[in-house]
């Protein structure tokens, strides 16, 4: 599970390797910025870039998905939490060779990348168990859900200069990612977000927005209450051009997040890759026009 930066936008985009990920978590890190945690399970990427620092939410997610966290160091308080929870399953650029963590200008925000296959080899040599994890909790079905709500697109906005939109593509059956441009003045128009390794626009089978409680210690230090959520929390799901209102919960610290539809039955995702946005509970979610949805991020 590799940390991928979304800022600084100019030198750090387009990202590398996100199209190879089975699962990507997106969450807020302060100062109107977001960051990604990419899970590589079914296939490897020769380059996940740019690698950035760890956050307090990371050890929660890594334990739930039985992963190894690869990150570009962290604030001292964050690093202590990461090492306490993950031990040898936490790999910082400060204590790993090349490969798996390589690149010039290692002090730079965009100077380091990760070879995911080499992460497996590195951790195995250091005694980290590399068996098939138990990831029960996520269900998949080719059959679209029964709903009258169309989900042609969904915009996630932190501020005008940080927003991303998913637009459903009938031909591929996936949602294509758009992102604000920093090269066309202060209007920040949306442009296709491509993977620099393939030159193709990011395409995901499922887009999930779950609403969770953020804890703000200061404007750059946040935690998110994912663990020990035994009650149903709100979530919305986009697949097959449809939107489904539902719920999520995480009663077990060593099992994946569970998803449910409005009736409380397990929500079946579309087979393929999934992008999960962790939005604050105060975020506004509405339909700007038929089939066009938006999530305006906010925390208390």
UniProtKB/TrEMBL annotation:
Q: Which residues form the DUF3048 domain?
A: 1-93, 157-276
Q: In this entry, which stretches build a coiled coil?
A: none
Supply the Pfam families for this chain. DUF3048 (PF11258), DUF3048_C (PF17479)
Q: What name appears for this protein in its UniProt entry?
A: DUF3048 domain-containing protein
What InterPro entries does the annotation carry? DUF3048_C, DUF3048_N, YerB-like_sf
Q: Which organism is it from?
A: Ornatilinea apprima
């Amino acid at each position: 599970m590799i940390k991928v930066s979304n800022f600084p936008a100019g030198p750090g985009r387009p990202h590398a390797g996100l199209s190879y990920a089975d699962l990507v978590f997106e969450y807020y890190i302060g100062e109107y910025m977001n960051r990604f945690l990419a899970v590589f399970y079914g296939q490897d990427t020769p380059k996940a870039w740019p690698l950035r620092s760890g956050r307090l939410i990371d050890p929660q997610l890594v334990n739930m998905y039985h992963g190894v966290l690869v990150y570009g160091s962290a604030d001292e308080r964050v690093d202590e939490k990461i090492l306490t929870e993950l031990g040898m399953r936490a790999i910082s650029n400060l204590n790993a060779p090349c490969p798996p963590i390589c690149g010039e200008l290692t002090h730079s925000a965009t100077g380091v990348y990760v070879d995911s296959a080499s992460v497996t080899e590195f951790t195995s040599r250091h005694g980290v168990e590399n068996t098939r994890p138990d990831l029960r909790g996520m269900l998949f079905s080719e059959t679209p859900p029964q709903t009258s709500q169309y989900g042609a697109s969904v915009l996630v906005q932190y501020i005008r200069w940080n927003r991303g939109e998913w637009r459903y593509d009938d031909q591929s059956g996936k949602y294509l990612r758009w992102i604000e441009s920093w090269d066309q003045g202060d209007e920040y128009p949306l442009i296709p977000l491509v993977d620099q390794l393939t030159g193709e626009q990011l395409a995901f089978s499922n887009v999930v927005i779950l609403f969770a409680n953020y804890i703000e210690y200061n404007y750059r230090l946040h935690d998110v209450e994912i663990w020990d959520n035994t009650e149903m929390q709100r979530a919305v799901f986009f697949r097959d051009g449809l939107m489904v209102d539902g719920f999520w919960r995480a009663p077990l610290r060593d099992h994946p997040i569970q998803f449910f539809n409005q009736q409380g039955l397990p929500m079946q995702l579309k087979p393929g890759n999934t992008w999960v946005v962790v939005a604050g509970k105060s975020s506004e979610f509405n339909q700007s026009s038929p089939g066009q949805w938006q999530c305006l991020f906010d925390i208390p």
